Amino acid sequence: MTTLLKQTKYMAFLAILVVTLFAFSPKPNTFKCMVQMINYSGEGAYVVISLINPEGGYEQTLYVQGDDDEWYHDIAEWWRFFGKTKTDIDAITGATIGGGERAINVIEIDQDKIDAGYSLRFETAVEDKEYYIKDVEFPLTTENIKLKHEGKGYIRYVRMMPQK
What is the dihedral of CA 25, 77, 73, 137, to 10 degrees? Predict the structure, then answer.
C-alpha cells in the first residue's frame, strides 16, 4: 500500500511540474503574413520566412512558399542552415507564388523573440533567375510588425497582422 501511495504522490508531482513548465513557457503569437509579389514572368517564386537571431544567424524557419524540396538548395543561405538540421517543415509549406500574385499565411513567433533583437527575413528565388537573400528583412519589434515592408527583389511588399 505504501508503494502505491508513493507512486501516486510521484505522479501528482510530475503532473504539477509539467503544468508549471507549460504555464511559463513562451507563448507563440500568431500572425497573418501577406506577401505581395512584383509582376515578373517566369516560374513561381520560392519564399522562405526565417527568424534571425540577434547575432545575424538563422534561428528558425517560420514558413516556406514552395513545397518541392528538390529546389530548396537554390535558396542558398537558408539551405546552409536548414540542410544541416533537416527539421520537418511539412506543416509550414505551401505552393510557390507567381508574379503579381499574393499569398497570405499564418506564422507563429514566440513572444520572447519580439523586441529582443531578432529579425524576420524573407528570401526569394525563382528558377533560372536571381536569388535575393534579403528581399525583405526587418527588426522584429512591436512597432515594425504593424508596418508595410518593401521588397528589394521579387517581393513588392510584406504586411503582417497580429491574430487574436
Answer: 70
| CATH number, residue 118 | 2.60.40
Domain of 38?
A: 27-162
pLDDT at site 61: 92
Q: Note whether residue 10 is domain-resident.
A: no
First to last CA, the chain: 49
53 close to 137: Cβ distance less than 8 angstroms: no
**Do β-strands 93-94 and 58-65 pair in parallel, antiparallel, or remain unpaired?**
parallel
Query: What are the Cα distances from residue 88, in Å, to 24, 61, 64, 70, 92?
Result: 26, 10, 12, 15, 9
**79 occurs within a structural domain:** yes
Task: Report pLDDT digits (tens) over 52-99.
Answer: 999 999 999 999 998 787 788 888 888 888 776 666 666 678 889 999
